[in-house]
Structure formats: C-alpha cells, structure tokens
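Annual report, structural modelling task.

Input specification for the S-adenosylmethionine complex:
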Amino acid sequence: MYQKKDGHYRMAKKEGYKSRASFKLIQLNNKFNLIKKGYNVLDFGAAPGGWMQIASALVGDTGLVVGIDLKIVKDKFPNSYFIQGDIFENDISKKIIKIQGEYNTVISDLAPKISGIRSLDHQKSIELNYRVLELSSILLQYKGNLLMKIFQGEFTKELIDNLKNEFYYVKISKPESSRPASRETYVICKGFKKRKLKIEDIELSEESA
Ligand SMILES: C[S@@+](CC[C@H](N)C(=O)[O-])C[C@H]1O[C@@H](n2cnc3c(N)ncnc32)[C@H](O)[C@@H]1O
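The model returned the following structure:
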C-alpha cells in the first residue's frame, strides 16, 4: 500500500530509526513508562524491526528483547533475538520460553494484511489481540505491562473489558505520530493480575466468529 512519506517518516530516516512506527513506541513509552533498563521485552509483530531497535536501546545491556513476526527481521540489535513464526502456531510459546521464561513487558504492533474492508480488518485485529492476551497469560510476569495496537470497531469495548479483568490499569492512547485518519489506536495495560486465565472467557462472542 502506498504510504505518503510524511514528517515522521523523514525524521525516522534522519534519526537512523528503522521506521516511522519507531516514534509511536518512543512517544507511548515516554508517556506510560512501559519499558525500562534491564527489562525483558517480548515484541509481537516485530518486522521490519522498528520497535525492536527502540526496545533494545531502552532495555540496555542488562535487558533482553525477543521479536516475533511472520516476516523476517534482517537487522541484528544488541541483546535481541528474533523468531520467525506465526503467533497462532501451537508451539510458539515454547519457542519463546526457550529464550526467556517470563517478560516484564509485552508489546504488540501486530496488524493483519489490510483488506480495506473496515469491519474485516477490525475483526482480524481483534483476533490477533485475543491471541496476544492468551500468550501473555503464559509469558507475562505478575504486575507486567502490555501494549497492543487495535484497529477500532464494534468489538473494541469487549476487548477492553476483558483487558480490564486481567490488568489493574487499562488506557487507550493514540500517539501523535499515528496518522489521525487511521483507525489504529493503542491500548496500554499495566499491573498484570496473572490469575489463571480461562481462554473460553475471552473468546469472541458467537456473532463475531
Ligand atoms: C505494523 S507491522 C509492525 C511494525 C513494527 N512494530 C516496526 O516497528 O517495525 C505489523 C506486523 O505484524 C505481523 N503479523 C501479522 N500477523 C501476524 C501473525 N499471525 N504472526 C506473526 N506476525 C504477524 C506482520 O507480518 C507485520 O510485520
């Protein structure tokens, strides 16, 4: 899809960042303090590596970043590992745990292949996010943070309500670097309760399946 090379894109190139998406993580982290020095960070939907690059710099030498994506991330970042794979694979959590058992923060910039049909793109984004929540229930540590992108639509509220059951603090925030016209926004969740999560509790309602 053609994307206009706007100010944030040019600034990203000038600053040596991999993508304009880098600014979204920088702005969200400045506001919500999700990633700190020494943290273990899990990055879902990591390609082409913009968020991995920023997270790697934020966690520093004592931290760790693990990125997952269907597409390969070619660049290598300090203290970072990349797994090429589908988050819906059965053994994806085993592959992640092999590198690190628990993570302080899970970040997800996952996006479905955009069809242009809003309701469909929204539904696919919701499915990705429920899978992120399911994987986080295994991989995120008690009191950990979760950041996820959603394409807004009719099931946003249901997802937010489910997130509120699992985290003490849940907030929606659209960073300034996210195009105003785009329906994407970000959900910031802090203070993971890590109670035993019943997956059937969070499945989409029948009408949305
Ligand atoms: C907007 S991009 C992420 C950009 C990245 N945060 C960055 O800063 O460079 C969304 C990514 O989600 C990935 N993705 C979508 N569905 C996926 C799935 N089921 N498993 C793994 N990755 C997936 C896509 O391949 C795509 O690279």
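The chain has one domain: 7-208.
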